[in-house]
Design a protein that fits this description.
Layout (H helix, E strand, L loop, with lengths): L7 E12 L4 E2 L1 E6 L2 E2 L7 E10 L1 E9 L6 H19 L6 H16 L9 E2 L2 E8 L2 E7 L2 E7 L2 E4 L24 E5 L2 E4 L2 E2 L5 E6 H7 L1 H10 L3 H15 L5 E14 L5 E2 L2 H7 L36 H7 L43 H30 L14 E9 L10 E3 L2 E9 L9 E4 L6 H9 L4 H10 L12 E4 L4
Length: 501
Amino acid sequence: MAKTSRAALTRVAATVTARYYPSSGAIDGFFLDGRISGRREHRSADISLDREDRGFFYSVFAHLSGGGPDDASQGRVRKALDKILTEVKQTGRNIDTEINELAECAVSVAGRITLQHDGVRQPYFAGIMVKDSELAAVTMGGGCAYLYRGDVLYPLTADDFPMDAIDYNGKPVTGLDVYCAGVAGTVRYSNIAQLQLDDCVIVCNKEIMDALGQREVLRMLYEAEDQADAAGLIITAASAKLPGVPLQFLIGFVETISNIDRTGRLQIGRAQQDSSAGLPSASIPSSSASSGRAGSSFGASAGGFSASGLPSLDEEEAEMPEKAVKPTFAPIQPNQKNYSSPRNRQEEYYEDDEDDFGDQPDTAGRGRRIAFYVIIAAVCIGCLFAIYNMLFADRGEPSTTTTLASTSITTSATTGSTVTTGSETSQTAGTSATTTPSTSGSGLITLPTKHTVVAGETLSSIAKKYYGSADPIYYTAIMEANSMANTNIMPGDVLTIPVKP
């Protein structure tokens, strides 16, 4: 049996561009995920829609009026299209059951396709549905549906336009028809494919491909800035080559894909977590087709989906349980080269061995995030500690001022005795001199003054005491004031302390 698809939100930016002209036969129109062509688009259309949802439905078509009023014919067509849109957006339904409903919608819109007559437009239909990041397409008549991935334009159905197995650079590719399934009557089916980031889904009428060709369309998709630019370039070039012919081109660019668990919470896919953590992803690389810019080459093989007789999926699975409804894609071969444009490429895939809805938590990714936060916290703490040391490391040292308080020094000298007045006592060879600074009412030291050298003092310490700094300029001034030839001083020497230079 086919594996149950996981619930996923897909963000698609879609643009439809069209040129309409009066013609006999079928009437052209488009359906842009609920927006249908109306009276305002009777000559041209240029509409963009950027939306995130679990399901999307895009289509271009031409239908027969059947001889009745246009409003009645338009109402019948809209009813069939709205039915598909409602079902594809409902929960509990998957794309496997919707592909047959899409085929019935194509028949209801396009009607019977008869032999073509000159000057009479034949009806056609090209529709693409997206459900939980999976893709399926159905075409009839001159309708074409394509998947642009990795510089390659893959046909989703076996339409009538011949395609060469090449990419944008002209390099050969394998498995160009990997997404084509089969034909049942006039209805052409696609396989069910998994969308990737930066994919482009395209539906158009065959006249555009006839006018431009495969290589020219690839060139415009590659050079366009976004999906709207690509649609404008292609429709303008095709209109110049086929004037007066109705043309329609609808392109949708896959911007994001995010998984949803059963409770409705968003979960990032494991491939996205590996990519965000800087780990290489060992799966099929996705292309970067933003505005038609492509990524790596893509090689794949798939199991076909046979639409002959339109058997129901339940009957088909009961008869052949080994048959896989959904195609499986082989990884790219090592000898295949990557002809990518300079744009950044992001890898995205969904592993088959993951359980549905991503219920199992990714403990490895959570551990990496916790380790990253711990490292950031440690770095911040270290920075704060370094800043604190720089700002407050010198707070414990006594501060010095450049303007010193001047105290009056009282020197008492006695012979054979020691006189103590205050805080310092000096004794030298039976003569004791004590210097006690006394502050005046203003708190300043009066200079010049006299100083008696005590044991352990130097000119630098004396200069720092009176001038607040041991700079050579200060103790040089003391040497000049005392006519000293060198810095040698002895305890008991009386020095004149000059005014601060």
